Amino acid sequence: MGGMAGTVRGATLLITGAASGMGRDYAARAVREGAAAVVLWDRDAAALSRTADELGRTAMGRTQVRSYVVDLSELGAIAKVAHAVRREVGSPDVIINNAGIVRGNAYFWKNDSGDDIRSTMLVNALAPMHVAREFLPAMIAARRPARIVNIGSAAGTLGNPRMAVYAASKAALAGWSDSLRLELRQAGHRHIRVTTVTPSYVATGMFRGARGPLLAPVLEPDVVVDRVWRAMLAGRPLVELPGSVRLSRVLRAVLPTTVFDRVVGDGFGIYRSMERFRGRG
């Protein structure tokens, strides 16, 4: 893999939420760079099949494209499908935990579905842990350059009205992701690099209706994919998009909470950004 200095040529990648959106874009980029194999996971069987066929035609036999239908809210299914991947393709060199869900725009106490809370935490927070756990032993033993990319959200670094459960799930993901990075370094497994990504709203349809706050316009997917891809290859630990996400985090740390709420949260429009959210549904 050339130390992953600038390409995934010859590597095996596993991408969750790969049937559409940025997951499909990551997979397409891997095919273009000549990856040995691209493994696509998604729960949408029809969309997954279309994406796999399209990528297979693009690859023209140079890259093995394999797809697996898996519902990441079923942790037992992750173990079962991971076993199939190890048997049929081999252990991945790169894992991109891209899949995620967001439900509704109601205040937390008006969310009348415990199932929404459970599924959001399972898909956004627990599933990436279980996916990584399935493949980490082989990645450690292989001693070749490897990457784990965890797609979080700026919501995981800053609370926001009307997305309490989503914010909680992404905060959990960020905490685990950075701790995993440090554990691998401390244990001497420096060939595995972990990248945590915390973008603001991205124009994929997942956050349709959400408004970009001041200094944080809604991001174009191709810009995010390119930034994440280059950070992944370089093994950088954190990607914050746009730069105002880091600014908000710094201001949150230094300003009194009431001042931050008034000046940044309300003044920049962050706390009103989900009022017109519709999502894919």
TrEMBL record:
Under the heading InterPro entries, the entry gives: NAD(P)-bd_dom_sf, Sc_DH/Rdtase_CS, SDR_fam
Family per similarity comment? Belongs to the short-chain dehydrogenases/reductases (SDR) family.
Record key words, sorted: Oxidoreductase
Originating species: Agromyces marinus
Please state what the protein is called: Short-chain dehydrogenase
Q: Which domain of life is it from?
A: Bacteria
Write one Pfam family the protein is assigned to. Answer: adh_short
